[in-house]
Amino acid sequence: MIATALVFALGALVASFVALIFAPVLWSNAQRLARREFEASIPTDVREMRGEIDAARARAAFELRSDAMRHRAAREAAARERAEAGRVILENGQLLARQADLDRQIADSAGRTEHLESQIQLLVTERDALLAARQDLRTRLERRDGELATLSAKHQALSEGFDQQRFRLATAEARAEDMAVALRAQAPGRSPPPSPAKETVERPRGDLRALAATAPTLAGDPQDGLASPTGNTRLRAAIALGGAGKPSTASADHAEIRERIGDIAARVIHERIKVEGPESRLARIIADAPPPADAGEPLLADRVRRLQADETPVTAAPAKPGGAGRARRKSRR
C-alpha cells in the first residue's frame, strides 16, 4: 500500500517536472501570436485608417438603425398594449354595467321569489285549512252516516216491533172472538148481580201510551181475566182509558191500533155485561159515561153502547143452541 502511494507521488513529480520544462516554450509562443494579432489589427497607413473609420461609422449606423427599429417596435408594442388596455378597460366597464344590471335583476328576482314564497306560504296555510275543513266535513259525514245507520237500525227495530204488535193485536182480537163465543156458550142463565156500589164516573183521561199499555192485559187469556177477582178493575180501567182524548198528531198506524184495542175492550166489556145481567155495575158505568165532545173517533163507552144496540134486535129472534142464530159484528181491520 505504501508502494502504491510512492508510485502515485513519483508520477505527480514527473508530471510537474515535464510541465516546468515545456511552460516557457508555450508562453513565448503565446506572446508571439498575441503580438502578431495586435499588429494585424492596428492600421499602418491612411487607407486602412479610413477603412477602419468607415467600418466604425457603418457599425454605428447599423447599431443606430437597429436601435431605431427596436424603439419603433417598442412604441408599436406600447401602442398595442395601450389599445389593448383601453379595450380591456372598455370591456371592464361593460362588464361592470352588465354586473350592475344583473345585480338589479337578481334583486328583482329575489323580491319576486320572496313574494312567491309568501304566496306559497299563504296557499299552504289555506290548503291546510281546507284539508282541516275537509277532514272535519268527512268526520261529520261519517258521524252522520253512523247516526243514519243507527236511525235506520232503530227504524227497522221499530218496524219489526210494530209488526209484532200488530200480530199480537190480531191474535188478541181472535182470542177475544173465541172468548166471546165461549162466554155465550157457557152462560145458561144470569148470575146474581153483585152488591151495588157508588163510584165516580169521572176518571182522568189517559194518553195513547196508557191506552197501549192496556193492550197486553186485554190480549191475555180471556178465561183467566174473567176468573180473576180483579177483572172488573181491569175493565173499569179500560173504560176510563177508552174515554181518553186522541192526540191530533197521531198517525194512521196508531189510529188502527187504537181502533183494534177499542173493539177488543168493547167486546170484552159487552160480554161481561151480558154475563152479569141487567144490573151489572159495568152497565151503569157505561150508561153514566158522557157522550163524545166531537164527531171524531168513538169512545169505549160508545163502542159498548153500539154493541148493545146491535145486540138488541138480534136477541128477539129465537137463538139456536150454541149461539148460532146471533149475528157477529165484524172487526175493523
TrEMBL record:
Domain of life assignment: Bacteria
Region of interest (Disordered), residue spans: 184-204, 287-333
Instruction: Show the ranges annotated as biased composition (Low complexity).
Output: 287-299
Basic and acidic residues bias (residue ranges): 300-309
Q: What is this protein called?
A: Uncharacterized protein
Organism (species):
Aureimonas flava
